[in-house]
Amino acid sequence: MSVSNLGSGRAGRRHIMSARMLANTVLPPVALAVLVIAAWWVAADAAHSTVFPAPLESITSLFDNLRLTEFDSSVIATLELLAESYLAAVVVGAIIGVLIGISKFWTDAVSPIIYAANSLPKIVLFPVFLIFLGIGEPSRVAFAFVSGVMPMLLIVLEGAAAVKLVHLKLAASLNMSYPALIRKIVLPSMVPSLATGARLTFGLTFVGLLVVEMFAGTGGLGYELLHNVTLVRLQDILGDVVLIVVISLVPTFFLRWLEGRARARFGA
Amino acid sequence: MSARGRGIPRYLRPMPKRVLGLPKIVWTIVVLIVLLGIVEGVAHSPAVTRFELVPIETMVRQAISLLGNGSFLKDALLHSSLMILVSFALASVVGILIALVMHAFGVVRRALNPFLSVYYSVPTFALYPIVVVIFGTGAVPIVITASAFAVISVTVKGLEGFDSVPVVIDKLGRSLELTGMKRVRTILLPAALPDVAAGLKLAFGYSIIAVLATEFILATQGLGWYISNEYDEFQIAGMYGAILIVAALALLANAGLGAVLRRFDWRRW
Fold first, then answer.
1. Minimal Cα–Cα distance from A13 to chain B, Å?
2. Cα of B77 to nearest chain A Cα, Å
3. Are residues A132 and A16 in the same domain?
4. Which DSSP string do the residues of B46-101 spell out, in sequence order?
5. d(CA A252, nearest CA chain B) in Å
6. Per-residue model confidence as pLDDT tens digits over B14-71
7. Which residues of chain B are under the pLDDT cut of 50?
8. How many Å apart are CA A139 and CA A219, to the nearest integer?
9. pLDDT digits (tens, 9 = 90+) for A243-254
10. Are residues B130 and A234, on separate chains, in Cβ contact within 8 Å?
11. Are A43 and A59 contained in the same domain?
12. How far is CA A80 from the centre of its chain?
C-alpha cells in the first residue's frame, strides 16, 4: 500500500510540476497576446473612429475579402511566388554554399564579396529587375530569390567549417571517392546549418517578396496592403497583416521543428 | 599534384597560401573585377539599350554629379541619413531597455520570448501601410517602421550579453549591495558591451534597409524615393548613379560602425 501511495504521490507531483511549467512558459505569452488584443479593442472603442477598426472588424473584413476572387487570386499569387523563390533560394544557396564551402581558400576569397553584397539595401536594385524582367511575376520571383539566396549562401558557407577534421581523416584513410566524401561526410555534417539556413531564408524571402509587391503594385498581398492605404481601409490592412502573420508563422514553426530534428540527429 | 602531397587528399592538406600563384585577397579582387566586367560587357553589348543599363563609368560620373547637386544632397542624402540615424538611435535605446526589463523580470521575459524568437520570420514591413494610414506619409511612419524592424536585434543581443555576466561578478555585486541602476551601470552594461555592440551593428544595417525600403515603397523624400522616382521618369543613368551612392554609403557606414564598435569589444584582448 505504501508503495502504491508513493507511486501516486510521485505521479501527482510530476503532474503538478508540468502544470507549473505550463503556467510558467505558456501563460505569460498568451496573457500578453490577450492583453494586446484587449488594449487594441479598448483603444478602437474609445477612439470611436471610422478609420481605426476593432480586432473583430479586421478579422471579419479578412474573411469577407477571402470570399472575393480578386483577393484570393492575390493571395494565391503571393503564395505561389513565395514557394517558387523560397525553394530556389534554398536549393541554389545550399548547392553553391557546399561547393564553395568545402574549400577554405575559396570561402575566404569569395565571402567578403557576398557579405558586402548582402549588407546592401537590395531593394534599391529592384528597378534593375523591373527593367530587365518586366513588371510581371518574373521580376518579383527573381528579387525574392536574391533576397533569400544570399543569407542562405552565407549560413551554409559558415556551416562548412563544421565539418570535422577527424571525419575527413577517416574518409581519407578509407580512400573515399570525392562524391562519396560529399555525400557521407560533408553533407551530414552540414545538415544542421542547412536547416538553420532554410528557416531564416524563409522570412527573408517573404520580406523581399512583400516589399516588391508593395512597390510594383500589380498584384499579390503586398499590393493589397498598399492599395488599401490609398482607400484608407485600415480594417482591410489589419486583416491582411493577420493573414501575412499566419502565412509566415505556419512554415516557420514547421521549419523550426525540422531544425530541431536535424540538430538532434546530425548535430554535434 | 606535387610529390610531397601525393596520396594525401586535397581536403586534408593545409589551406594553400596561393592558388595559381595568387593569394586570397588578389582572388577576391579578381572575382570582383570579373563581376564588374560582366556588367560593363552587358552595358556595351548591342543587346541592351542605354535605357536598360549604362556603363560603370557613366554610373560613377552620374554619382559624382549627384553629390554636387544641392537638392539631391538635401532632399535625398541628408534626409535619408537623418531617418537612418534617428531610427537607429531609437531602436538602440528601446532595444536595450526592453532587454533590461526582460532580464530583471522573469515574467516579462517568459511573456516576450516566444514572440522575439519568431519576430524576424514575420515581414515587419507589413506594418508600414498601417502607420502610413494613421500618421500620413512623412518622417514618422518611416522612423516607426525602421526602428520596429531594428529594435529586436538589439534586444536579443543585449539579453545575450546580460545573461553572460559571470556568476562570480554577480555575487561580488550582491555582496557590495549593488542594486538597481548601480548594478546596471557597473555590472550589466559593461559585461554586455560586446554583445550590445554586435546588436547595434545589426540594428544599423536593419535601419538602413528599412528606411530605404519604406522610402522606396511610399515617400516624398529620401534616397529610396529618389531612385524609384528616377526609374519612373526613365532617368536610368541617374538611377544607377543614385544606386551606386546607396551602395557606397551602406558599405562605408557598415565598415565604419564595425571599426568603432570593435573598440568596445573587450573580449578580444
1. 23
2. 14
3. no
4. TTS-TTT---HHHHHHHHHHHHT-HHHIIIIIIHHHHHHHHHHHHHHHHHHHHHHH
5. 7
6. 677 777 877 888 888 888 889 888 888 888 888 777 778 888 888 888 889 888 888 8
7. 1-5
8. 13
9. 888 888 889 889
10. yes
11. no
12. 15
How many helices and strands, by DSSP H and E, does chain B display? 12, 2
Evaluate if residue A8 carries a pLDDT over 50.
no
Task: Count how many domains chain A has.
Answer: 2
Query: Measured between alpha carbons, how far is B162 from B188 in angstroms, rounded to an integer?
Result: 6
Q: Can you give the pLDDT at residue A15?
A: 57
State whether A31 and A68 are in the same domain.
no
pLDDT, one tens digit per residue, over A223-237 is: 888 888 877 778 888
Please compute, for residue B198, the number of CA atoms within 13 A of its CA located in the half-sphere on the CB side. 12
Taking an 8 Å cut-off on Cβ atoms, the answer to whether A252 and B121 are in contact is yes
- Chain B hits for A220, CB-CB cut-off 8 Å, are none
What is the domain-level CATH number for residue A183?
1.10.3720.10
CB B130 to CB A237 under 8 A? yes
d(CA A139, CA A216): 9
C-alpha cell read off for B39: 556588367
Interface test with B, best of A25, A99, A123 (most B CBs within 10 A): A123
Retrieve residue B184's grid coordinates.
546596471
- C-alpha A255/C-alpha B217 separation (Å) is 30
pLDDT at B17: 74
Q: How many Å is the Cα radius of gyration of chain B?
A: 24
**What is the four-CA torsion angle of A66, A72, A75, A80, rounded to 10 degrees?**
140
- Contacts A169 to B, Cβ<8 Å: 12
CB contact under 8 A, A109 and B111: no
Residues A113 and A230 in one domain: yes
How do residues A103-128 score in pLDDT, each as one tens digit?
788 888 888 888 888 888 888 889 88
B66 Cα to chain A: minimum distance (Å): 16
How far apart are alpha carbons B189 and B134 in whole angstroms? Answer: 36
- For residue B18, the chain A residue with the least C-alpha distance is A105
DSSP notation for B112-169: HHHHHHHGGGS-GGGHHHHHHHHH-SSHHHHHHHHHHHHHHHHHHHHHHHHHTS-HHH
CA dist A117 and A99 (Å) reads: 19
Task: Answer whether B227 sits within 8 Å of A131, measured CB to CB.
Answer: no
Range of the domain at A42: 2-47
Cross-strand partners of B23: B18
Taking CA–CA distances from A212, the nearest residue in chain B reads B217
Do residues A146 and A162 share a domain? yes
CB interface of A with B, residues 204-243, below 8 Å: 206-207, 210-211, 214-215, 225-226, 228-229, 232, 234, 237-238, 240-241
How high is the ipTM of this complex? 0.82
